[in-house]
Amino acid sequence: MPFDFTKHRVYTIDYCKIFEEIMEQRVLANNDIQAQYLSQWMRSLKQHDNILLKQFGTKKDIMEFVVKMQSEPEIFQLPIHLKSDTLFLHFRVSIVNEISKDFYSQSEWIPIAEFQGNNQCIYWTKVEENVEGYAGCVQPIIAVPYFSGKYNWLVIDGNHRLTYSVNHNIASIRTLILSETSAIEQRIFSSSFDLMFYIFNNELVRFGNITAEGKENDLKLIKKSYLCGKGFQFGNE
């Protein structure tokens, strides 16, 4: 049972249905190898799922966590809607903001067009509340690589600033894109389950694209999986 860090509750995941859903897609060329690969990932996710269950197994555990989180209240949650289930990915915004200070010089101005319309390749969450207080804010928004459909990046901090810029037709917005390596090594996720699911999602899409292009065979791809114990192996792309 993973944990919903915004509503402070555990929820269930049907790993069998997720496995069946992904098996309908072509991730690897060989169906048997793909099944073994996905089974290994399901086992790993369940292990980290169980870690959360031990941490939040009782109401007392959850209440103690809520008290501790008063010093770190801001968490960005991304709902991931599959055919079979809905999962939640959580990012620790306060940690993200702290490490972003060291990467500020790497931020760049990205055209607003890349956040909307046919050219959109960055996923973000439009804020419905009043955002006029963000006028003139120069702090960069922060995004991480996240592969889903046409999107390659996900905004995990700065959706209010971005909403203001879009509403006022501002040409571009300063953006800091953290690499996958930085996201993984800096532990910006709320739990090990969130970290592993983030890696799993990007790895799954990456493997599927490589397979479709016929660039590498299954065995070579499998050796690049995060589950092989060699860490993240796509940092030099």
> Strands of the largest sheet, in order across it?
5-9-7-8-6
What's the order of the H and E elements? Answer: EEHHHEEHEEEEHEHHH
Count the domains. 2
Number of contiguous helices: 8
Quaternary structure: single chain
The outline comes out as globular
Distance between the termini: 34 Å
- Total count of strands: 9
Write a brief caption for the model:
With 237 residues, the protein is α/β, with parallel strands linked by helices.
Can you put this structure into words, describing what you see?
The structure is a single chain. It contains 8 helices and 9 strands. The protein is 40% helix and 19% strand. The model has no long low-confidence stretch (mean pLDDT 91). The chain is globular. Helix 1 runs antiparallel to helix 2 and helix 2 (31-55) packs antiparallel against helix 7. The strands form 3 sheets. It has a 5-stranded mixed beta sheet with strand order 5-9-7-8-6. A two-stranded antiparallel sheet has the order 1-2. It is an alpha/beta fold and 237 residues long.
Question: Which key phrases capture this entry?
Answer:
five-stranded mixed β-sheet, 237 residues, Conserved hypothetical protein from pyrococcus furiosus pfu- 392566-001, ParB domain, alpha/beta
Spell out the blueprint of helices and strands:
Layout: E1 3-4, E2 9-10, H1 15-23, H2 31-55, H3 59-68, E3 75-81, E4 86-92, H4 93-100, E5 108-111, E6 122-123, E7 141-148, E8 151-157, H5 159-167, E9 172-177, H6 180-185, H7 192-213, H8 218-222
Parallel strand pairs: 6-8, 7-9
Antiparallel strand pairs: 1-2, 3-4, 5-9, 7-8
Helix pairs in contact: 1-2, 2-7
